Amino acid sequence: MKTRKFLSVFVVAAFVTFTGSASIAQDRHEREERHEHHWDRDRPAFDEHERVVVNGWWAEHHERPIIGFRVEDRYPREWEPRLQVGFVLDNDWRHRMHPIPIELYRRLPPPPPHYGYYVIGGHVCLVDQRDWRVADVIHIEL
Predict the structure, then answer these.
(1) What does pTM read for this prediction?
(2) Which DSSP state fits 96?
(3) What are 13-33's pLDDT values in tens digits?
(4) Low-confidence spans in the chain with pLDDT less than 70
(5) Helix (H, G, I), strand (E, B) or coil at 63
(6) Beta-carbon-side half-sphere exposure of residue 133 (alpha carbons within 13 Å)
(7) Which DSSP category does 77 fall into?
(8) Which of 58, 85, 120, 125 makes the best surface tag, with the fewest CB within 10 Å?
(9) Sign (positive or negative) of CA dihedral 8, 14, 19, 23
(10) CA distance 108 to 131
C-alpha cells in the first residue's frame, strides 16, 4: 500500500515538474522570438518589423475579424485624417478603442513605459496613456 501511494505521488510530481518546465521553456522561446525594439524616449514609434508583424497577423485573421477590426468597430469616414501622430484621443475616440488581441500583443515587443497598444477603427496604435496622445499608427486596409 505504501509503495502504491509513493508511486502515485512520484508520478504526479514528475507530471507537474515536466509540464511546468515545458511551459517555462515555451515562454522563454516566445520571449527570445520577440523582436527587441529600442524605443526612442522622446518620440516612440513603430519600426518596419512591427509593421510587417501587424500586417502579417491581419493577413491571417482578416476573414474572421475580431473586436476592433470588425465593420461595426469602424469610425466615421471623416475621422480618418485625424488619426495620426500627435492626435489626442477625446472621449468619443476612447469609447471606440480596444486593447489589441493577445496573440498580436505577444508578437510585438513590450511597449515603452506609460504606453499601450490599442486598436482604433481597425488600426493599431501606440498610445501614451498619460494624456491619450497617439505616438504612432499602423494603418490597416480593412
Answers:
(1) 0.74
(2) T
(3) 544 444 454 444 444 444 445
(4) 1-35, 37
(5) coil
(6) 10
(7) G
(8) 85
(9) positive
(10) 23
